[in-house]
Amino acid sequence: MEFFSSELLADLAAARKEQRKRRSRLRVKAGDQYVPVVRIGRESLSVDREDAPRLRGLVDIFEGQRHLYQALIV
Fold first, then answer.
1. Which residues pair with 30 in a beta bridge?
2. How far from 48 is each of 2, 18, 56, CA to CA, in Å?
3. CB contact burial 22-50 (16+ within 10 A = b; e otherwise)
4. CB-CB contact of 33 with 40 (8 Å)
5. Which of 31, 37, 45 lies closest to 73, judged by CA?
């Protein structure tokens, strides 16, 4: 059995996260800032902490240019 270094595993995890962000067309707009949505569910959505460390309040969710929803982030 082969074991991978922790650096390699961290690089693979970062690559997977980048791929999910690039694949998603969904964006959250708060003020003038647009943040890519990593995952969206029926009652929740996820964004990357590095992209939106202090994202709070009423936001709009877009798919490309089309407005889909409004959400309250607390």
1. 33
2. 31, 10, 13
3. eeeebbbebeeeebbbbebeeeebebeee
4. no
5. 45
pLDDT digits (tens, 9 = 90+) for 20-69: 666 668 889 888 888 888 888 888 888 888 877 788 888 899 988 899 98
Could you tell me the CA-to-CA distances from 35 to 26, 30, 58 in Å, in that order?
9, 8, 14
Helices and strands in the chain, H and E counts:
1, 5
Q: How far apart are CA 33 and CA 27, in angstroms?
A: 10
- Checking if the pLDDT of 1 tops 60, the result is no
Q: Which DSSP category does 43 fall into? A: S
